[in-house]
Protein: MarR family protein
Organism: Micromonospora chokoriensis
Amino acid sequence: MPHNVSVRPRIPGGSEPRLGRHLHEHVPTQGALATRLAIDRTVLTYVIDDLENAGLIERKRDPQDRRARRIVATDRGRVALFEAERRVTHAEDHVLGGRPEDQRDAFRDFASHAAEAIHAAAPATDPCVAVRSVLPPAAQPAG
């Protein structure tokens, strides 16, 4: 049963897709997640608070290190992540339709590297906002 998830915390540096990927790959600690997302731990705490308050993730004590907390997606969070990934796939199909998978992979890698470069050059800049600032009005996304 899908939930209407209207919470979209702002993660500095456009790290939203990377956060989802890390929740799929393993159950990260807060510290490891901050390092992998290249954002300050104190900022990540606020992001995690927002996601936890929305019922999308929960912090669980690490059985190997009681000082550490693992970030675990809730059932509602997994549904929200699935829906977000479905929307991304739909957008990619629209933009990259007909391209072979190796070209689609290359585009995703390039886009990821571009977002990381924008973050490295200007950590306070959201890569999505940076891209929108150079798009002509006709190419601006709706909303």
